[in-house]
Write a structure and sequence with these properties.
Number of helices: 10
Distance between the termini: 14 Å
CATH topology of the largest domain: Metallo-beta-lactamase, Chain A
Mean pLDDT: 95
Largest sheet: 7 strands, mixed
Radius of gyration: 22 Å
Low-confidence stretches: none
Order of helices and strands: EEEHEHHEHEEEEHHEEEHEHHEHEE
Length: about 300
């Protein structure tokens, strides 16, 4: 699992930061969190291909979070895409995007599914499960959790030998969750496997002020990607407009027991010279914090 930050800023493109878009690559497919203007071009500077995007998760319909979608779809079509693309967002997303896609001569040459979601909804993507929670913003907004299914426990070789199970294909079948027989005896996976091990979990808040719903969604996350629009001095103003400060993001990560925090959606009012201070403020609360920059890559490793 790999995270690539395509756009780390907020509100509008600026010299140092593109507006919001974060790609999660898992098993050859990409899940895209938000899609600001120019996202397809940001892909071209990255190690990923926009043609591998299978799902787009829009946190809300403020322009800096979705206006790149028509350009991305058009670019995919011009590159002869055939595979289906599914786009998800809060209530009203499907209707508004159908209207957007009907403007002018724009049309997708491949299937595009448009889906409305609500807080509490879940979607099975096969390799992972999507869960949603309502974010605290000025318009209907969602935060997303992408979670891998649990993995089988570790194979206990000593137990298998003590039970007289011969090495080879039977070991593989037991590890795959099958019950096997040998020499007239039946062996189930729980006889040789340890407790199930958790898969990886990545949570993306979109734009949001701190909330209990976000903290609960982020519980135990391997990576929390959190709105960090302002520094601590402007936290109250950020909250007024449905955003968080870097310190508030760190407080959420700490309360949720997350492993790592990635600060995104940095306001254009903060330049490169402000980053060390914003990061230091957050790390004083939650040490495992990274402040995003465009094209930053993070590998999300399994815990064991």
């Amino acid at each position: 699992m790999k995270i690539v930050v395509l756009g780390s800023g907020g509100s509008w493109p600026c010299r140092d930061r593109a507006p919001p878009a974060v790609a999660l690559k898992l098993d050859g497919e990409i899940i895209l969190f938000d899609c600001a203007e120019g996202t397809q071009r940001q892909f071209m500077f990255s190690t990923l291909s926009f043609m591998q995007v299978g799902h787009v998760l829009l946190s809300h319909l403020h322009g800096d979070h979705f206006l790149g979608l028509p350009g991305l779809v058009e670019t995919m079509a011009l590159n002869d895409r055939q595979d289906r693309l599914d786009v998800y967002g809060p209530p009203g997303t499907a209707r508004r995007l159908r209207t957007l896609f009907s403007v002018g001569y724009f049309s997708a040459a491949f299937p595009v599914g448009l889906h409305d979601l609500r807080g509490g909804d879940e979607v099975d993507f096969g390799t992972c499960r999507l869960r949603c929670a309502e974010a605290s913003h000025q318009v209907p907004s969602l935060a997303y959790s992408v979670e891998e299914p649990p993995r089988p426990g570790r194979f206990n070789l000593d137990k298998a030998r003590a039970l007289g199970i011969p090495a080879g294909r039977l070991y593989n079948r037991l590890q795959a969750g099958e019950t096997v027989t040998h020499a007239g005896r039946t062996f189930s996976p729980d006889m040789v496997l340890g407790p199930p091990r958790g898969g990886r979990k990545v949570v993306y808040t979109g734009d949001s002020a701190p909330s209990a719903a976000l903290t609960e969604l982020a519980r135990g996350a391997d990576l929390l990607i959190h709105d960090s629009t302002s520094d601590s001095a402007l936290a109250a103003k950020a909250n007024q407009y449905g955003h968080s400060s870097s310190v508030q993001a760190a407080e959420t990560a700490r309360s949720a027991g997350a492993r790592m925090l990635l600060l995104v959606h940095i306001s254009p009012r903060f330049g490169k010279e402000d980053e060390p201070r914003m990061l230091a403020e957050a790390r004083a609360v939650f040490p495992d914090t990274v402040l995003a920059s465009d094209l930053l890559e993070l590998d999300i490793r399994l815990r064991d």
